[in-house]
Amino acid sequence: MTEQKQVIPEGYKQTEVGVIPEDWDIQRLGVHATFKTGPFGSALHKSDYVDGGIPVVNPMQIIDGKVKPTSSMAISDEAAKKLSEYRLIAGDIVIGRRGDMGRCAVISEIENGWLCGTGSMIVRVKENADAAFLQRVLSNPQTITAIESASVGTTMINLNQGTLRALLILIPRDKQEQTAIANALSDVDALINELEKLIAKKQAIKTATMQQLLTGKTRLPQFALREDGTPKGYKASELGEIPEDWEVVSLAEIGQTIIGLTYSPNDVAEHGTLVLRSSNVQNNVLAYDNNVYVNMDLPERVIVKKGDILICVRNGSRQLIGKCALIDKNADGAAFGAFMSIFRTKSFGFVFYQFQSDIIQNQINEIMGATINQITNKDMAGFRIPLPTLQKEQVAITSILSDMDTEIQSLQQRLTKTRQIKQGMMQELLTGKTRLVKPEGSVHA
To answer: How many other C-beta atoms lie within 10 A of the C-beta of residue 253?
Structure first.
């Protein structure tokens, strides 16, 4: 059987790293930049650090391709003068040398004159290259893998100048094409940033709305008036003022708590019954990225039903205690693990949102032990919440909050998709598979 020869598209060439555009090169990063490692720690003393001083950029301050200074990492003008050779210039790339590789950012005019810290390195870009393009190359997962393979350090990788200087990169000869690629990826980043801000805003609105609706401080118009048309009032309770037609109840009065399944590693199988665990609860919805299945006889009590509230009741991380999700039709029939509990109630929608509110979360914080992060069945039964006496009002409040959740989840799905698109764009644009600038002399786009 003859081996089929690879067809190279017009305008491309075969290289040791694969097929790339004819007007792109494989070059060492040292052709396009010079490098300077940040000062040794001994160069700065505790007395040099001041509030409101000149920011020092260490890897922790490089987040998502941007420099985000902290007030505790700033030095006096006098100290900075002694370290003038480590001052950053607009257009430099600052890259972290330790820990997570790929932490790098282009220095803007705002950050001009800031100081490169001990754990960072200055990549000073020459005229023949676009700094924003090289920053994208350095933060590309494939480049990070190459850097990690070539870097020194067993437990903590330390990036040195030699590794960066020798790093092979793909680069368009035309600087305009480099800039176009960087700008396209920057536009996607801007969209991601706007979506993140919108989601945060919607979540803040939901939190404020929960605080008002779940305590009765704000009444829905259809439930706010008495039969004679006068506004309903409020009454004192152990949880503060509540509407006159609400009551304070314990969870034991309106439902039951059921403990989860204990199983051994021998019961785990590739297929079988899904066991819902803490990792299956993400942002108060069910997630299925990290699943465990068991093949064993299961007691009826550990099988979840639609409308059950799945709650994390024991975990090594204190902040995960009390996180919850509502069982939907897709999860109906699954089991749940020993570190989880189910709360089963007719008022499941209203109680589900109470678990997300300060009302129950504050009670969880009060009962949590100093050493063991857990909620017992007795604890759960004793939690108290304000509850509308009319089922219709519970449903109406739940519906409003559920609609908010649906909108937030839709935005989160859009954000996830946009991030995936960005990853695909990086792969296409940084390898030249997709061109944004028409090659000189080419009849093809």
So the answer is: 12
How much of the chain is in helix, strand and coil states, percent to nearest 5? Answer: 40, 25, 40
**Length reported for the chain:** 445
- CB-based contact 148:74 (threshold 8 Å): no
Identify the CATH number of the domain in which residue 435 sits. Answer: 1.10.287.1120
369 and 325 belong to one structural domain: yes
Task: Tell me, yes or no, whether 148 and 200 share the same domain.
Answer: no
Q: Considering just the CA atoms, what is the radius of gyration of the chain in Å?
A: 29
d(CA 240, CA 246): 12
* pLDDT tens per residue across span 270-283: 989 999 999 999 99
Same-domain status, 397 and 358? no
pLDDT (tens digit per residue) in 379-420:
999 999 999 999 999 999 999 999 999 999 999 999 999 999
Minimal CA–CA distance to 165: which of 28, 287, 357, 316?
28
* Residue 247 β-bridge partners: 387
CATH number at residue 355: 3.90.220.20
Alpha carbons within 13 A on the beta-carbon side of 356:
29
Domain boundaries, position 434: 174-238+389-440
Residue (of 243, 251, 241) closest to 354 by Cα position: 251
